[in-house]
Design brief:
By secondary structure, the chain is α+β, with helices and mostly antiparallel strands. It has 7 helices and 3 strands, in the order ααβββααααα. The two termini are 31 Å apart.
Length: 134
């Protein structure tokens, strides 16, 4: 759920601690991402109750990857943990989010990397790619 609603990578989710989560009028996650870059992302306020007693995760990425691979094979649906990040990106843009904000939330350096996450044909995107030089 955290990745689906925030766009975090698996290692970022598993590394979350109480110090990374600030709950006020919103839920803000302070993330140290790839290349030791820091960024902020958010969760819906509906997560407030789930996060009040959050102490972190005690599983490793191999466990998650293996479990999801097994589920994917049994259900004959190709997906991975990273699919949640792609779903977040698509949902964000379909909900009228702009691609520059999405780029920041995902922690991308290049806007073209962000566009790849959307998995739409260019003419189906609800944004003007020409306006951003793509």
């Amino acid at each position: 759920e955290i990745s689906y609603y925030s766009g975090l990578r698996l290692n970022e989710v598993l590394a979350l601690s109480n110090q990374d989560i600030k709950i006020n009028g919103s839920i803000v996650l302070s993330i140290q991402g790839k290349g030791d870059k820091y960024r902020k992302t958010y969760l819906p306020l509906a997560f407030r109750e789930k996060l009040t007693s959050f102490t972190g995760f005690s599983i490793d990425d191999n466990y998650v990857i293996t479990t999801l691979k097994r589920i994917s094979q049994k259900t004959k649906n190709a997906f991975s943990f990273h699919s949640l990040r792609h779903s977040f990106a698509i949902n964000f843009v379909e909900s009228s989010g702009d691609i520059h904000s999405l780029k920041k939330l995902l922690g991308h350096k290049d806007i073209q990397t962000t566009v790849i996450y959307l998995k739409f044909r260019k003419d189906e995107l609800p944004i003007n790619l020409k306006a951003i030089g793509y």
